[in-house]
Design a protein that fits this description.
Order of helices and strands: HEHEEEEEEEEHEE
Number of domains: 1
Distance between the termini: 40 Å
Radius of gyration: 26 Å
Protein name: Outer membrane protein beta-barrel domain-containing protein
Largest sheet: 8 strands, antiparallel, barrel
Number of strands: 11
Oligomer: single chain
Shape: elongated
CATH class: Mainly Beta
Structural class: mainly beta
InterPro entries: Beta-barrel_OMP_2
Domain Outer membrane protein beta-barrel: 31-174
Strand order of the largest sheet: 1-3-4-5-6-8-9-10
Number of helices: 3
């Protein structure tokens, strides 16, 4: 009698597991994220100059992320971020001995559609960044900040490479720490900006492009929204919440 009860219990367990088994086609997650790290306007003529030198300054971004995850390894993530950058140049006007500082600050709204390859505890991501300039300001030793937004292009495109680690979490929540590198693929300075000697102030010969670059440490918190799946035993695929 005991053996019969055990066998009936095992049969019930396997039946329940078979009915609950699912084939997952897609699962969705959303999260918040922030990042901070160094940035610099890269201009070959300025880097080769002697009296006009760029400094490495800090940048930060914050925003939200939405993820489309296909199977165990692949995902398409879309980040919407607000970003703030700063760039300082040191120079000696009129060959004087006093060092002056030319400073730019600009902010943007950024969209990151990235392909992400996930492993058990880490990931790598690659894709573009589309950036809409909100404002740009300039200041130096002799004047305060003035608006120079028209001297820079309204939209810019960057190449992005990132990687990171899953620090904590489970199926419905993950905390991620990563590193993201970005480099603008086009000249950040507009035609009007070149006419106004942005960003070289006319102190450097040449017409090299100015391409902002950054490296940021990224912090990301994700929550699972649900998944689109079909039971193995058949039936119509539908959306399940975590």
């Amino acid at each position: 009698m005991k053996l019969k009860n055990i066998l009936l219990g095992l049969a019930l367990v396997f039946t329940v597991q078979g009915l609950s088994a699912q084939k997952v086609y897609l699962w969705l997650d959303a999260g918040v994220k922030g990042s901070y790290g160094p940035n610099m306007m890269v201009n070959a003529d300025i880097l080769n100059g002697f009296n006009y030198t760029p400094k490495i300054n800090g940048s930060y971004s914050f925003g939200a992320k939405f993820g489309f995850n296909f199977g165990e390894y692949y995902a398409l993530t879309v980040d919407g971020m607000y970003s703030q950058f700063k760039q300082q140049f040191t120079y000696k006007p009129d060959l004087s001995t006093q060092t002056a500082i030319n400073e730019y600050r600009w902010s943007s709204i950024d969209l990151y559609p990235l392909l992400r390859y996930n492993r058990s505890i880490n990931y790598v991501e690659i894709g573009p960044r589309i950036s809409w300039l909100r404002n740009a300001r300039q200041a130096n030793n002799t004047s305060g900040f003035t608006d120079v937004t028209g001297d820079f292009n309204d939209i810019s495109y960057s190449a992005i490479l990132g990687f990171g680690w899953y620090a904590a979490g489970d199926d419905a929540f993950t905390a991620i720490i990563g590193v993201r590198l970005g480099y603008d693929l086009q000249d950040f300075v507009s035609e009007a900006g070149h006419a106004n000697n942005q960003v070289d102030l006319g102190l450097v010969e040449g017409d090299a492009s100015t391409n902002p670059a950054f490296v940021q440490l990224v912090f990301e918190l994700n929550w699972g929204l649900g998944y689109y799946a079909k039971t193995v035993c058949g039936g119509r695929a539908r959306f399940f919440r975590f």
